[in-house]
Design a protein that fits this description.
Elements (H helix, E strand, L loop, with lengths): L4 H5 L5 E3 L8 H9 L4 E4 L5 H14 L4 E6 L5 H11 L3 E5 L7 H6 L3 E6 L2 H9 L5 E4 L5 E2 L5 H8 L7 E4 L5 H9 L4 E4 L1 H4 L8 H9 L5 E4 L7 E4 L2 H12 L4 H8 L2 H6 L24 H19 L5
Parallel strand pairs: 1-9, 2-3, 3-4, 4-5, 5-6, 6-8, 8-9
Antiparallel strand pairs: 7-11, 10-11
Helix pairs in contact: 2-3, 3-4, 8-14
Amino acid sequence: MPKMITEVLGVQYPIVQGGMAWVSEAKLTAAVSNAGGAGIISSGGRTTDFVRDQIRLTKTLTDKPFGVNMMLMAPNKDEILKVLCEEKPAFVTLGAGNPVPYFKALHSAGIKVIPVIPNVKLAKRVADAGADAMVAEGMEAGGHIGVLSTMALMEQVIPAVNIPVIMAGGFADGRGLAAALLMGAAGIQMGTRFLVAEECQVHKNVKEKLLQAIDTDTIVTGYTLGAAVRGLKNKFSQDFVTKENLGTTTKEQLIKMATGTNKLAAVDGDIENGMVQAGQTLTLLNKVEPAKTIITSIIAEAKLTLKQAADIKI
């Protein structure tokens, strides 16, 4: 039986913080790791200097393991790789591209490799290539998504590979963590849940919009571009989907329309014209609280749920 992600990464709890572009910085990363989870710095859209500085800053804020998310669509990915191999975070998650060519360099630097995968085919490929673990991300997640749901991935990916599988997409409480563990997952990854952490540097307008959101408030843009992205319904996302469905806007025009919208929301706080990336589990976001409180409450609820599950008779 594959190891728990706690054993692989040397962390206390099987909770990994998602690497969210323009959001996952040193303060949040360190807070999650200090609370017993595995924090992640996002390198998406960032310069090499920024990534290096954030890794070094995080090391001053925590002595616990943390990672960096490497976006393989980034034009400076090779330069980012060099920084990672020099600065040596505990692990690197890789998504939005073929991760296999990067395994050797990262492993040579003593860094654990955890690709993000959307289907069984890629799961088998990265497992065979020597990944230390993987994140199987369902379409319930925020940001870039695949076409399979989290449950479908759990049922098919976990038994298909012999390395730890971290499940992502729609997790926000202890019941979800317990369900994933019972299915054989090595842990869970959460992004949206940490957007309302006190330490998260996302713009306050985004936090307020998330706290007001209901379960049906997300929408997926970019299906016609082959790059689906889930976020909250607003002027931008609904206009974008309307143009996609009409088919009168070219692919190039749609790409131009979407470029920079994530930063516009997350950093500048424009929650109508920016893309507010978020997953589907929204009604559980009730208040802004410390990352430690979030993790502690999830673990307590998971333990209770697992205890109750032991008494179920079928």
